[in-house]
Every structure is written in structure tokens, then in C-alpha cells.
Amino acid sequence: MSALNAATDPELLLLLKQDDRMAFEELYERHWFSLYNIAYKRLKDRETSRDIVQDIYTDLWDKRQERNIRDLLPYLHTCVRNKIYTLLAKGRATAHFVEPFENMALSYLTADSFLNEKEHEKLMLLFMATLPAKRREIFRLRFLEDRSTKDISEQLNISQKTVQNQLLLAANGLRSGMGNLLTLAIILHFTGM
Predict the structure, then answer these.
(1) What does the alpha-carbon distance between residue 144 and residue 112 come to, in Å, rounded to a whole number?
(2) Which of 29, 60, 61, 87 supports an S-S bond with 92, CB 3.0-4.6 Å?
(3) C-alpha dihedral, 116 to 117 to 122 to 125, nearest 10°
(4) What is the spatial distance between Cα 74 and Cα 38, in angstroms, rounded to a whole number?
(5) Residue 36 phi, psi (nearest 5)
(6) Three-state SS string across 143-183, please?
(7) Among candidates 35, 32, 24, which has minimal Cα distance to 2?
(8) C-alpha distances in angstroms, 123 versus 11, 71, 100, 118, 147?
(9) Dihedrals φ, ψ of 108, to 5°?
(10) Which percentage of the chain shows pLDDT scores above 90?
(11) Which long-range contacts (CB under 8 A, 24 or more apart) does 111-116 make?
(12) What is the pTM of this model?
């Protein structure tokens, strides 16, 4: 049993900043299974889940001098979610990925909805990054700036029908990527309904 087993996460983080490899290994052993479970629960893919955890720990080691982490476990859990969001945005997530996002959309009205609202916003921005430039601009104007299709068509000097078609294509892409329930929750959130 290592003396580091009794150390707290903040103590291990301080040692990590001093390039202590043993502190890094203790943090890895302490939290890797929890991170793996979070990833696997959403992806149902062992290899991808292991890769996500490995990437997070590689980043933790590589940027140990730059990071100022206050609370390690929430930080690591956020890293897992962000890696999964990135997989979704790149179209590399499996069908098992949709259910947790639908559950997150349902929890929009719960007491912790402020955190979920931030996650929805991050997810929306990741989705928008996958759109072609013109469609992204139309989507942004409609849902983030609450502009009418007529206003958008005038601003971008295109027909209103083109704006409507581009919004329909974006909504179809969002729906196929994340499911109808999440689509509705995000659109309702950004339109203030």
C-alpha cells in the first residue's frame, strides 16, 4: 500500500504539478473506473470508452502545469461529457448515445436545470459547428438571435424560402443526430417557450 493512498485529491494534484508520476498513477487508479463507467453508460462501446479515459488522463499529465483544477472529480466527469459531445458532433457516436441526451432533455425542468442548460448550450454549439457555414449562420440568426425568416432573408440577401429550407435541413440533421425529444427541448430553450 502506497503512502499516496491516504492523500486527498487536492494533495495529489499539488504533487502532480511537481511532476510526481506516482501521484498521477494514484489519481488514475482512484478515478479511471468511474470515468470509464460514465463513458460506457452512454456509448456502450468498451474500446471507445477506454480511449476517452486514456485521452483525458494523457491531457491531465501533459497539461499538469497549465491546469488549475479545484475539484478533480467534477472536472474529470466534465471532460468525459465533453469528449462524448465531440464524438456526437463528429457523427462518431452510436445509437446508444441518444437515450442519455433524451433523459437530459427531460431533466430540463428539474432543480439542477441551470447545469443542464449550460450542457444544452454547449451541445447546441457543437451541433452548429457541424453545419455548413451558410446553414449555421441561418440557424444562429433564427434560434440564438430569435430573428424571423423574413428578417434573415433580407439580411443575407436570399429568399425566405431558402431560409426555411435551410432551417428544415438543420432541424432534420439535429433530429437524426440526437432524437426528437432533445430537438424539441433545445428549440424550446432557445426560443424561450
Answers:
(1) 22
(2) 87
(3) 140
(4) 12
(5) -60, -45
(6) HHCCCCHHHHHHHHCCCHHHHHHHHHHHHHHHHHHHCHHHH
(7) 24
(8) 33, 23, 13, 9, 21
(9) -55, -30
(10) 32
(11) none
(12) 0.50
Separation between Cα atoms, residue 137 and residue 143, nearest integer Å: 10
C-alpha grid cell for residue 154? 433580407
Angle, alpha carbons 138-79-41 (nearest 5°): 95
The burial class, CB within 10 Å (0-12 / 13-18 / 19+), for 114 is: exposed
pLDDT band, very low/low/confident/very high, at 32 (cuts 50, 70, 90): very high
Highest mean pLDDT among 63-72, 115-124, 182-191: 63-72
Residue 151 to residue 172: CA distance in whole angstroms: 22
Lowest mean pLDDT among 84-93, 109-118, 144-153: 109-118
